[in-house]
Design brief:
- The chain is of the alpha/beta class.
- The chain has one domain: Rossmann fold, CATH 3.40.50.150.
- It is built from 7 helices and 11 strands.
- Strand 1, helix 4 and strand 2 form a beta-alpha-beta unit.
Length: 270
């Protein structure tokens, strides 16, 4: 397994996610009590996209502190989770030991990951792409870890969401960030955490938007064949105050569904 040399953005984002781990593990958002009682930290979009994982090897990229990876293991997958946060990986390993679920966890920056093996499934979801400056390296990691015939599945917030300011001005909500990126990240000096918007961590975050064309082109450029792509009017968190609860618990939508809030991509390695 290889890792990248630290960079300013990587070190800052890793420090942020290290600081978030204890807050997230103790939050109602992640519902560790429900997971310990036998629940699954996977939604209907993720389950449908991957299908039945029983008896399949599965690589979960950017797994945070492991609840999704452990959920795949609970469903019968031979699951490996990867995250760049040392605190997240430490917590994930502790949860695996506590629950007795046979998942393994590795610490690495996703663009430089090389586990020296391949998997039936590669999976990643929700709030993952904006932390990556380079989708070319990300897609090559996916291709490197899929066996011939293996399947990749991504569920992600729509890049259109990235442009909006989450605070209203006198004329309502306006675009704040560019849809098309120009190399430099958007830097938020106080990142906080989505599980408690009143909490302050005193840490910045660096993030990049990736238009749909960039996602598809990166995967195709790495030799993967796109077999499915969908856009969805729902999202499993509330990034903007003007979203309202959807019919399915835990999901949000915009009244009238004027534009997509999330998308999914399925690809295979021929």
């Amino acid at each position: 397994m290889t890792t990248t040399a630290p960079t300013p953005w990587l070190a800052a984002n890793e420090a942020l996610w290290d600081a978030r781990v204890p807050l997230h593990a103790d939050s109602d958002w992640y519902d560790l009590a429900g997971f310990r009682a036998g629940g699954l930290a996977l939604d209907h979009i993720e389950r449908a996209g991957v299908g039945d994982p029983a008896g399949r090897s599965l690589l979960h990229l950017q797994c945070h502190f492991g609840l999704g990876t452990l959920s795949w293991a609970r469903l019968g997958a031979e699951a490996v989770g990867v995250d760049f946060s040392a605190a997240a990986v430490e917590r994930a390993r502790a949860l695996a030991a506590e629950t007795g679920l046979p998942a393994r966890f590795e610490q690495a920056e996703v663009g430089a990951l090389d586990l020296g093996r391949t998997f039936d499934v590669c999976f990643t979801s929700w709030g993952v792409l904006m932390w990556l400056p380079d989708l070319t390296a990300w897609a090559r990691t996916i291709a490197r870890h899929l066996r011939p015939g293996g399947v990749f599945f991504l569920a992600e917030g729509h890049p259109h969401l990235f442009i909006w300011d989450d605070e209203p001005g006198k004329d309502g909500y306006r675009p704040r960030n560019p849809y098309f990126r120009h190399g430099a990240p958007v830097v938020d000096e106080e990142a906080g955490t989505y599980v408690d918007t009143s909490a302050t961590l005193g840490l910045p975050q660096y993030r990049w938007n990736h238009p749909l064309s960039e996602v598809v082109s990166a995967l195709a450029g790495a030799g993967l064949r796109i077999t499915g792509m969908d856009e969805h009017p729902v999202l499993p968190w509330q990034p903007l105050p003007w979203l309202v609860p959807a019919d399915r618990p835990g999901f949000y939508r915009i009244p009238g569904d004027p534009f997509p809030l999330s998308f999914t991509v399925t690809a295979t390695k021929d």
